[in-house]
Structures are given as C-alpha cells and as structure tokens.
Design brief:
The complex is a heterodimer of chains A (317) and B (458). Chain A is mainly alpha-helical and 317 residues long. Chain A is built from twelve helices and no strands. The model of chain A has no long low-confidence stretch (mean pLDDT 85). Chain B is 30% helix and 24% strand. Chain B is built from 14 helices and 20 strands. In chain B, the strands form six sheets. In chain B, strands 10, 11, 12, 13, 14, 15 and 16 form a seven-stranded mixed sheet that branches. The mean pLDDT of chain B is 91. Classes of the chains: A mainly alpha (317), B alpha+beta (458). At the A-B interface, helix 2, helix 3, helix 7 and helix 11 of A face helix 4, helix 5, helix 11, strand 15 and helix 12 of B.
Chain lengths: 317, 458
C-alpha cells in the first residue's frame, strides 16, 4: 500500500505537468483575440498601434514556448499570473471564488448521497416492483435532463409561483447560515438531484448484487428481520463501490457548477471559468482549469485510498 | 457602474449639448487650447481635494496607451498645465472639436474618470482598481465585478435638485451581476431586484402585463445592421451590395423582432442623435430593383454568400430571416453564429465571410467616435472609405456645431452611396423596473442608467 501511494503521489506532478501543457495549448487554440475580447468588439475606437501595444503588454506577441515556459515557471513559484480581465493576481481571484464552489459542491454531494443511496437501496429491495420502476425512471430522467432546464423549472416553481426562495445570489454559510440555506436551496437541489440519479443507479446494482450473496441468505436464515439484513449486512458491503462513484462525481460536480453558478449568479469557480472563456482571459482560465484538474486527481487518489481502507480485500501493489 | 461613483467632468444634457458637472465652465481659447474651470470645494470620497492637479494626474493616467482609457488616443501629445488650483489648460497638437464631449464619458474607461491621486499612490493600481476613490453621487462600499457591489450615498456630493434637495435621494444601491435573463426577470417579478438593466425585447409583454412593473424604452438607441466586405469578391461589386440593400425587407424584420419597440433602419444614425438627417436617401424594400441590380452585378441566377453573426440574443434568428428573404432573389446565404469576438475576427481580420451581422449603441451626442468606429475601426482588413475618413478629419477641425453636422449629413449620404451596410433595424434600449422606482433615466452619454434622481416609493 505504501509503495502504491508513493508511486501515485510521484505520478501526480507528471500528470499535472502534462495537463498544464495540454491546457496551455488548448486555451491558445480557442478562436478569438483576447485584446478584442477586452476592448469590446463593436465599440472599439482603438488604433491598430494601440491594439498591438496592448497585445505586447499582455505578452501575447512572444512565441508560444516562451509564453508557456514563463507561465510554468510562475506556476512552480505558486504564481498563476495576472488576469487579463480583472488586472489582478489569478491566485487571489481564484481563492476568493473557492468558498462558494466548495459550499455548493459539498451540499450538492450531500443531497445527492442522501437521495441516491436510500432510493437505490429501496429500488433494489423492491426489485421489479412499481416502486423500482418509478425510482429507475426518475434516475433516468435525472441523468437525461439538462441542469439549466431543471434550474429554470425550479425557479419557476419555487421563486415565481410559490415565492419561497430567492432566484439568485450567494451568502456564505459562516456569515449568515439561515440566509445561506435559502440562497443555496435551489442550486443545491438542481445540482444534487441530477447527481443523485447516478448514485441511485449504482447503489441499486450494488445492493442487488450483495442481496444474492450467501452471507445475506445466511442472515435471513438466522431469522433476522428484513430491514436489519438490508441495513446492517447488505448495505454496508454494497456501499463500498458507491464510495468510488461518489468520489468520482467531483468531475461532474465541477462541470455542473459551471452551469449552476452561472444560472444562479453564484460567484464561484464555475462562473469564473465561463467568464474567462468568454473574455479569453488565458491566465485565469488556465488557473481555474489547473485547479479543477488537480482537485480531480487528488480526489481520485483519496477515493482509491478510502476504498482500500474500507474493504480489506483490496490490496494495491 | 462607474457613473455611480466616478462622475465625469462634464455632462451631456437631454438636448445633447455639453453641460457643467465637476467642471463648471470651459473656454475654447483657440483651436488647440481648451481651458476648464473646476467647481469650487469638490472633494474626493477620501476627503482630498478635487483640484486641477488631480484632473491633470487623472488625464495623464488615462493617456496611457496600454492601461489608460479606451479613447486614450485623443490625449496623445496633449500638454496639460494647471495655472491655478481650479484651472486646467489643455494644449492639443492639432484641433480637436469633439474632445470636450469626450469629457462627458466616464465609462467604460473613458478619459473623464477622475481619480484621487492620493488614494491611487497610496493603494497602488491593483488595490485601487478594487477600491476606487473618486467623486460621484455614491461611493464604493464593496466592488465586485462579478458578484454584488454596494454603493452608498456620498454625503459630500454637492449637487441638489431644482427644489434644493440634496442628491442623490437613494441611501444605498446594490448592483448584482445576473447572467441569465430568465433569472433576472424572476428576480424582478419577486422583488429581488428593482431594476433589470440588461433586458430583452422578448420579455417586454410579460413585464408589461404586471401592474407592479414597468419598462423603460428608448427606441433607436441601438442599431442592428449587416456590414458587407467591400474588398472581397463578390461583395466588392457595388451593384451586388445595392441589390442586397434593396432585397431585404426591413419592415418584416421590425414586425418579426421588435413590433412596436423599433423602426426600420434608415442609415447609420437614428432620430435619437442630434445629427440624424431624415433627408438623406435610404434603401427600402424593392424586389424588382434588387433583381435588376443582381443581373447588373453579373449574378442573374443568384449566388452563394456567407454571413457571420453572434451566438447570443436574437442575432442568429435575424440571420435566418435575412437568409429567407435573400433566397427570394436566388441568393443562397449561409448563416454561421460565433462568439462576438470570434465573429469580428473572422470577418474583419480573416476575411472568411462576405457579410457580418451585428449591432451597437447609437450615441445621442456628437457621432464622431461612433462614425470613426463604424467607418474606420470596424472595416474589414484592407478596406478604406477615404471620402468618409476625409470628412471625419474635417469634422475634427470644425468647431461650429452646425457646420460639423453638415459634414455628418454628408457622411450619411455617402453611406447610402457606398452601400457598405444594410441598416436593418432601429432597436430599443430597454430596462425593466419596479413601478415604485421613480426618477430613473438613461444617461444621455453612454448607456448607463442615471440613479442620481431616483427614489423608491413606499
């Protein structure tokens, strides 16, 4: 296990380096000139010389390998560069946007697990019943519907019709907990419920598999109640693969946050990523995507470790 | 948001003439010398004095070609002196008859945004950009370009209304960035916001149907048009461009997209601008004439053309209607949608398309910068309109407003003659607001909403 961990940790910088290269190239391949994105397309009164001066000031006239080398050297020192749009350090801007995204992600994951695991378990226990069909259909619906559509439906129902929640905005959970819950209710529901669909399906398959195991049959034969068999015996084993699924949801969470944060005007990393793409803010976009990538790599590693710790049968070599 | 906390040196009145603001008097000493006299007793929100030296400092900062104002070019070579604490003397290398009006623009990044030199030196550029110190009806409490910004009443703002009451009336203004229009309308309907500044035509009926909401409409504040690449074949043939101008039915565009919120395009300017000339000839739909010109251009059986437009808003649909209308003439138009930056680059720099569909604001004041952008800046690479450029140069040297407007009329006539653009629609600038919010208006300079005279009824 220790050897495995060391190897995985040693791989991280290599993967991260490759990611920086791919990221740098892909970002530069985006059509559209950052200078025009900065000054606005139609209302620009700038001369060619002024535009060239701005391009030079942003370092865009240097050859790509030089730009990459410079950025990489800065990243190695912990400096992600300066935002073209905001003219502030990227690191500071990203750090400011982390709390809303973390708050959204953690709450959404909690909702996803709280809904997905019980629903998947019930569907498995009531296999082929109308309840199973309902849960499966709901899961398919959850996987299929786009986040933005679901968000608009939630806003229509809970904001416009019922007036229960605000439509947009963000308040930190440590600043005003109650207000924060009101603001997070809809975005968390939109993101959490769509994520729960995948957890629900995996839980159902896993529980079904475990329910057919000998030890479950033995537990039943011993006269244990159905609920005890499911909760204390079957579910504990069945949830192991679900841990992996939950861990791997981080990628989906980050992707979902891009849409949800834009819809609900949450000033998080997802929204920052969208603005960086629209504004061709190369340093900011590189910084945000790099952070996303490293987060996913680390969470994948932690998931593997957690899996091994939870299931003694797993042995990494 | 800039206008809330950084008032311009001068203002544009409702009649589009320059009026005093921080500067109370001015004199065009000669063709290259402009004298500005500041109002007495003005203070930045950090308590320091708004004096001539601060204006000089701010203008020099705005002159930086990289970090300065978007119209920093106008300040190049300008010598700025301060004979006394309230007088700023600007000496231009060449006559500039429209510079004075540039001082009414403080956003985005216009030359007239005045900063506190003390605060700027103390905070440094980076921190200053996040906590700007200037003078305006409000001062910054919190500034987040992508979140919620809060502005509170500037108690030191010296202006009063006609009854002598101190301005502004509002104690506090919260500005939120909501990128999805469906969400912003929901916020407006449920009282989450009072004014929806970025508002789409399609939401007007819904808002108008609610008695507690209202819509502010300024028809003609925007134009939507198709620019033709007149240095690329086949749109380098004038008869073809004219055929397209005659072949597009602007009334149908207005009926489809604007209803009673707009008018057919009739030229580069609209009636909101003081230099708009209704006597200049315009293109109107004439299919027969279009067919005749098409044959004259050498395409009696039609041809294929490409148009690029934005992915956002209603533009792709406008492109589709243009496609349908031109099909009647046998013109097979391919419509591609791109992000605004990419669309401009592919049309202007790369010459990938013959046509470009876009839109922009139409100024109320002097149209010189607008014309410069339309007829010089936004042209495809290698394209020139020398006659219009000559007239613009002449306008810059013409201090008599009536004489200058005659030059602008001539430019509008040349626009018709050269047929480089199809002016499709005079579109509205829209804002929806809670009906209890009173006293708001569009600022005559720029596109912001003036909240200085706004209040909210209980």
């Amino acid at each position: 296990m220790t050897g495995y961990l060391v190897r995985r940790l040693a791989q991280l910088p290599v993967v991260a380096l490759l990611v920086t290269l791919v990221l740098f190239v892909v970002v530069r391949m985006l059509p559209g000139d950052p200078v025009y994105a900065l000054i606005g397309e139609d209302d620009s009164g700038l001369t060619e010389e002024q535009i060239e001066a701005r391009r030079e000031a942003l370092g865009l006239n240097d050859p790509l390998p030089v730009q990459y080398g410079r950025w990489l050297a800065d990243v190695a020192r912990g400096d992600l560069g300066r935002s073209f749009l905001y003219e502030t350090p990227v690191t500071g801007e990203i750090l400011e946007r982390v709390p809303p995204t973390v708050q959204l992600a953690v709450a959404s994951l909690a909702v996803a697990a709280a809904v997905g695991i019980p629903a998947g378990t019930i569907a498995a226990v009531k296999r082929n019943s109308p309840l199973d069909v309902l849960v499966t259909l709901t899961a398919m619906f959850g996987i299929a519907i786009p986040n933005f559509w679901f968000s608009i439906m939630l806003i229509w129902l809970f904001v416009v019709t019922l007036g229960w929640f605000p439509a947009s905005g963000f308040v930190g959970v440590w600043e005003q907990p109650v207000q924060s819950l009101r603001y997070m209710a809809l975005p968390v529901t939109a993101l959490g419920l769509t994520l729960s669909a995948s957890i629900m399906r995996h839980t159902r398959s896993s529980v079904l598999e475990v329910l057919s195991q000998d030890y479950v049959r033995t537990a039943r034969a011993k006269g244990l109640q159905g609920r005890t068999v499911v909760v204390r015996h079957a579910l504990r084993s069945a949830l192991l693969p679900v841990v992996t699924v939950v861990g791997l949801q981080l990628g989906s969470l980050l992707a979902g946050s891009v849409i949800i944060e834009s819809m609900f005007a949450i000033p998080g990393l997802g929204r920052l990523a969208v603005q960086s793409v629209n504004g061709r803010d190369y340093p900011m976009l590189q910084g945000v995507v790099l952070l996303f990538t490293i987060s996913v790599l680390l969470v994948n590693l932690l998931t593997d470790i957690a899996y091994a710790l939870l299931d003694p049968r797993i042995r990494y070599s | 948001m800039t206008h809330l906390y950084a008032a311009p040196l001068l203002e544009l009145g409702d009649d589009a003439t320059v009026t005093p603001n921080l500067v109370e008097a001015w004199e065009q000493v000669d063709e290259t010398t402009l004298s500005l006299t500041l109002r007495d007793g003005l203070q930045f929100t950090d308590g320091t004095s708004v004096n001539a030296e601060a204006v000089r400092y701010s203008l020099q900062r705005a002159a930086d070609p990289v970090k300065g104002a978007s119209d920093s070019d106008w300040l190049q070579g300008v010598s700025i002196t301060t004979p006394n604490a309230r007088t700023v003397l600007l000496k231009f290398p060449a006559p500039n008859a429209v510079f004075l009006e540039a001082l009414t623009m403080n956003s985005p990044g216009g030359v007239a945004a005045i900063v506190s030199p003390t605060a700027f030196e103390r905070l440094g550029e980076e921190q200053f950009n996040q906590q700007p110190v200037s003078i305006g009806p409000f001062k910054v409490e919190k500034l987040e370009f992508d979140g919620e910004s809060v502005f509170v009443r500037n108690e030191g703002w010296p202006f009063t209304d006609a009854r002598g009451a101190r301005l502004p009336y509002l104690d506090r203004v919260r500005v939120r960035v909501i990128s999805d229009t469906a969400v912003s309308v929901a916020e407006l309907e449920t009282g989450g916001i009072d004014v929806d500044y970025v508002f789409l035509n399609e939401n007007v009926p819904r808002v108008r149907s609610q008695p507690n909401l209202d819509v502010m409409v300024e028809i003609g504040a925007l134009e939507q048009s198709i620019i033709m690449n007149f240095v690329k074949a086949p749109t380098n043939i004038k008869a073809l461009r004219q055929a397209i101008c005659y072949g597009l039915d602007r009334d149908e565009f207005v009926a489809t997209f604007l209803g009673d919120l707009g008018n057919p395009g009739a030229g580069p300017l609209t009636p909101v601008n003081r230099a708009y000339d209704p006597n200049v000839p315009t293109y109107t739909y004439d299919e027969g004439k279009a067919r005749q010109l098409l044959s004259q251009a050498g395409f009696p059986n039609g041809l294929r053309l490409g148009i690029v437009t934005y992915t956002s808003g209603v533009y792709p649909k406008i492109g589709e209607l243009a496609q349908a209308q031109l099909r009647r003439l046998g013109i097979d138009l391919t419509v591609d949608s791109r992000e605004a930056t990419v669309a401009g680059q592919e049309f202007r720099d790369e010459g990938k398309y013959e046509l470009y569909l876009g839109g922009s604001g139409v100024p109320k004041g002097d149209p010189y910068p607008y014309f410069l952008s339309r007829y010089v800046g936004a042209l495809p690479r290698g394209a020139e309109l020398p006659e219009i450029k000559r007239l613009l140069d002449q306008a810059l040297r013409t201090f008599d407003v009536e004489e200058r407007d005659k030059l602008y009329s001539e430019i509008q006539r040349l626009d018709f003659e050269t047929a480089t653009r199809v002016w499709l629609m005079q579109a509205p600038r829209l804002a929806a607001h809670n009906a209890r919010v009173r006293g708001i208006r569009w600022l005559p300079a720029g596109s912001a909403i003036d909240l200085q005279h706004a209040w909210k009824e209980a």
